[in-house]
Amino acid sequence: MTIRKRLTPALSTLLFLLTAVACQVVAIKIFPHVVGSTLIEDNAYILTRMMEGYLVVLTVIFAVFTRFKIHFECLNPGKERVKNDLIISAIISVVLIGGLCVVRVVQNFFFPEIAARPWFGSLYLGTYMRWFYPISAVLQEIFVKGVVEDNISASCKKYNKHFSIWMTALFFFVLHMGYELPMMFGAAILCALTGYLYEKNKSVWGSILIHFVIGFMPKIIGVSR
Fold first, then answer.
1. pTM recorded for the entire structure
2. Which long-range contacts (CB under 8 A, 24 or more apart) does 175-184 make?
3. Within 13 Å, how many C-alpha atoms sit on residue 58's CB side?
4. Are 209 and 83 spatial neighbours (Cβ–Cβ below 8 Å)?
């Protein structure tokens, strides 16, 4: 009996998640040797690139040898679903940007160094944010929604959608273990928020837009450096 036949979809998914976490632990251990320093914002993109690399490899391996599935339907769920998804995500994005502007105004009153920063200044964007982050947002959302969340949903049909969404968010939380705790919680909340949007429309495009806005706009507005 082949490995594919022996492993149920649920067991295949569980093994995938555990293997991915194990790979992240190894990546964090070797990270200082790769960059010659501990994890800081300026070189954090290297850890992200490592994570995305092993996730792609693992996905292919598990798709070939187990019942783990790659779901590309999230890229083309139908024009109406994509339209609804983008409308909702655009509204959420506008609200988020408005909230960030309010945060910036409040910061200006209490932090002179922030008040001195120009609004919407591209000078805040390093190489990673300029060239890699947009690609990273696309890859991560396709992977998290079309691979992880869909496989958890298919493997745990007796549970409702909330279980799949929050299990996926927990997985995303753990994958960010190399970052500071606020970043880990932020990643999990982002994953859950876009997870509910994904369950509604089964389109990944709205999730990509929100992911991009949350990661990109704080630096553009000057809320963070």
1. 0.85
2. 175/20, 175/21, 175/24, 175/51, 177/24, 177/25, 177/28, 178/24, 178/27, 178/28, 178/31, 178/39, 178/44, 178/47, 179/39, 179/44
3. 22
4. no
Predicted confidence (pLDDT) per residue in 30-45, tens digit: 877 666 656 555 566 7
- Which DSSP string corresponds to the chain? --HHHHS-HHHHHHHHHHHHHHHHHHHHHHHHHHHSS---GGGHHHHHHHHHHHHHHHHHHHHHHSS-----GGG-S-HHHHHHHHHHHHHHHHHHHHHHHHHHHHHHHH-HHHHTSPTT-GGG--HIIIIIHHHHHHHHHHHIIIIIIHHHHHH-TTS-HHHHHHHHHHHHHHHTTTS-HHHHHHHHHHHHHHHHHHHHH--SHHHHHHHHHHHHHHHHHTS--
Q: Look at 150 and 48; give whichever has higher pLDDT.
A: 150
Phi, psi of 179 (to 5 degrees): -100, 175
Under 8 Å between Cβ of 124 and 225: yes
List, for residues 154-210, the tens digit of each pLDDT value. Answer: 887 767 788 899 999 999 999 888 778 888 898 899 899 999 999 888 999 999 999
Summarize pLDDT for 67-95 with one digit per residue, the tens.
Answer: 888 878 888 888 899 999 999 999 999 99
